[in-house]
Structures are given as structure tokens and as C-alpha cells.
């Protein structure tokens, strides 16, 4: 049984509110009030970009630098406001919150994530490409289009995301050992528990050892899951494999969102995708089973 539109809408609304709340709390970390925030979260994504986008991103950094503390508190306040409107709001408050959420997420996707690096030819889905803020914006827009088809839209959003990830993963750079492993290896420079560093280093070693075979497997897996969520969203194997993949990539590829490094601004792309997937699938969904028949020959819900 698929969740009805209103329940899916509520799950997406609450889930997005929780994500903005977590983002606001992460934004209060001490490093966010220092130049480290600009150098790690904005200047790094700007470096390999096309000249026009690099100019925009560097310009925004220059504007923010003299007012970093004030602007950071403004970001905290804005994201707390978005969380409150989505978690506790009703009616027009939710719609207004969703609209502002979409606009703010797209702003961050442009200036903070550099359009998810998709114009560089090296946007790695293993580390969250095409950008978690694009996903936040997409979920925000789903909240503005209520209806009985919301559950299907939610699962298809995850499916479309994975299909786009497969296209990005097929870029020429990821068929080389250095190109495939470098985005993940960069995460090992951050402060993190020894067990997590060991796991990420092991994954990097695998990527370096067999880049062609691993990347082929990644492209095929992402394509299969994307198509599965688009056409067979309630099959057990599709859901189970999608959850396992997203959990694995969050730990090994996204380094658990960098939450232990003191500079994370979001929990990561994979948790947000899991939330959307959860919202689109009802608890106790029948997946791949034959529906029970009522005595009159109808189907029991």
C-alpha cells in the first residue's frame, strides 16, 4: 500500500524542517565564524569552475568576509525560521516556508556548492554530487505541489537523482584511479574517528586498485536503482538495495557528511535521499507480494 498524498506531504515537510534545523545547529560551530568557513565551504568549490561562475563565487566571498559573524548568525536565524515554518506551520505558513526554502537552497547550490560541480566534469556522486542543496530545493518544490501523486513523485525524485548520478559517474575522469579516488581521499584530511578513517582509507584503496571495474559497477548499480525507483518503487529488492547503497556511500564516500570535522553545514546528500525515500513509501508497504483477495473477489487494501 502506498502512502496517501497528505501523509507523504507531511513526512516531506517534517523531514525538510529537521534538515534545516540540523543545518542551523551545524552553522553555530566555532569554525563557521572564522575564515575557515569561507576557505573550505566556498572557495574550494569555486577553484575549478568556469570563469563566470568562479567570478560570482569569489565575489560573494569578498562581500561576506568583512561581515562574516553577522552574516553567519543571519544564516542561523533564517534556517531556524525555515525549520519552524515547516515543523510547526500550517497552510500558508508552510507554503511560504517551502517557497523561501527553495530559493535559499538554490542560492546555496549556486554560491556555496558551485552548482554541485557539474560544470567541472569531476562532480562525484560518491561525495554528494550534484549537490545536496539541489535536493533540498526539489523537496521544497514538491511541498508546493500537493496531490495524491506525491508519493510517486518522491520516489521518482530519488530515482531521477540516482540516474543523474550514473551519468555524472560515467564522466571520463572517473575511469582513472586518481580521478575516481581523489574526491573520496580528500575526506581523509578531515578530523574524524579512527574507525571511520580506516573505513574510508580502505574504500580509497579499492578505488585505486581497480578503477575501471569499480566505476563500471557503480554506473550499472546507479542506473539499475534509478530505473527501479522510477518504475518499481515498492519492490523489496529495489528499496533494500537503495537503502544499503545510500548508507554505504554516506559512510565511505561522504565521510558521514564530515560531521566530525567541525565544518559540516549539512548531514550529507545520502541522508536527505533516504528521508525522501522514506516519505514516499508507506509503512508496511506490500512490495512484490500478491495482494490478498476479499471474498467478493476484490483486493484487500
How far apart, in Å, are the first and last alpha carbons? 7 Å
- Return the string of H and E elements: HHHHHHHHHHHH
Give a count of the beta strands, DSSP E runs of length 2 or more: 0
In this structure, how is the largest beta sheet organized? Answer: none
- Tell me the β content: under 5%
As a whole number of angstroms, the C-alpha radius of gyration is 20 Å
Counting H and I runs of at least 4 residues, what is the number of helices?
12
Structural class: mainly alpha
Helix fraction, binned, reads 55-70%
Number of domains: 1
Q: Pick out the low-confidence regions.
A: 283-295, 297-301
The rough form would be described as globular
What number is the mean pLDDT?
Answer: 88
Polypeptide structure, described:
With 301 residues, this protein is an all-alpha fold. It has one domain (5-280). Helix content is 65%, strand content 0%. The protein contains twelve helices and no strands. It starts with a helix and ends in a 21-residue tail after the last helix.
Features:
globular; 12 helices; mainly alpha; 301 residues
What order do the helices and strands come in, and which of them pair?
Blueprint: H1 5-26, H2 35-46, H3 51-64, H4 68-88, H5 92-111, H6 132-143, H7 150-169, H8 177-185, H9 194-209, H10 211-231, H11 236-252, H12 269-280
Compact summary:
This protein has one domain (5-280). Residues 283-295 and 297-301 have low confidence and may be disordered.
Amino acid at each position: 500500500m502506498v502512502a496517501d498524498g497528505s501523509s507523504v506531504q507531511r513526512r516531506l515537510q517534517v523531514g525538510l524542517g529537521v534538515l534545516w534545523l540540523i543545518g542551523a545547529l551545524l552553522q553555530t560551530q566555532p569554525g563557521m565564524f572564522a575564515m575557515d568557513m569561507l576557505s573550505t565551504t566556498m572557495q574550494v568549490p569555486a577553484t575549478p569552475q568556469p570563469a563566470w561562475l568562479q567570478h560570482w563565487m569569489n565575489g560573494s566571498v569578498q562581500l561576506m568576509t568583512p561581515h562574516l559573524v553577522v552574516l553567519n548568525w543571519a544564516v542561523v536565524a533564517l534556517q531556524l525560521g525555515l525549520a519552524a515554518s515547516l515543523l510547526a506551520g500550517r497552510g500558508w505558513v508552510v507554503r511560504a516556508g517551502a517557497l523561501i526554502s527553495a530559493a535559499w537552497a538554490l542560492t546555496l547550490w549556486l554560491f556555496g556548492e558551485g552548482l554541485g560541480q557539474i560544470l567541472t566534469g569531476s562532480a562525484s556522486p560518491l561525495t554528494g554530487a550534484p549537490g545536496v542543496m539541489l535536493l533540498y530545493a526539489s523537496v521544497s518544490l514538491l511541498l508546493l505541489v500537493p496531490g495524491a501523486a506525491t508519493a510517486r513523485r518522491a520516489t521518482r525524485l530519488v530515482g531521477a537523482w540516482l540516474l543523474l548520478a550514473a551519468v555524472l559517474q560515467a564522466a571520463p575522469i572517473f575511469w582513472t584511479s586518481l580521478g575516481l579516488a581523489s574526491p573520496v581521499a580528500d575526506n581523509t584530511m578531515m578530523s574524524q574517528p579512527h574507525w571511520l578513517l580506516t573505513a574510508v582509507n580502505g574504500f580509497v584503496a579499492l578505488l585505486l586498485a581497480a578503477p575501471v571495474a569499480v566505476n563500471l559497477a557503480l554506473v550499472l548499480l546507479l542506473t539499475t536503482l534509478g530505473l527501479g525507483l522510477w518504475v518499481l518503487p515498492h519492490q523489496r529488492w529495489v528499496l533494500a538495495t537503495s537503502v544499503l547503497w545510500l548508507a554505504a556511500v554516506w559512510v565511505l564516500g561522504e565521510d558521514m557528511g564530515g560531521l566530525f570535522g567541525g565544518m559540516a553545514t549539512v548531514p550529507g546528500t545520502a541522508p536527505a535521499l533516504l528521508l525522501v525515500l522514506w516519505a514516499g513509501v508507506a509503512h508496511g508497504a506490500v512490495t512484490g507480494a500478491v495482494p490478498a483477495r476479499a471474498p467478493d473477489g476484490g483486493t484487500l487494501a
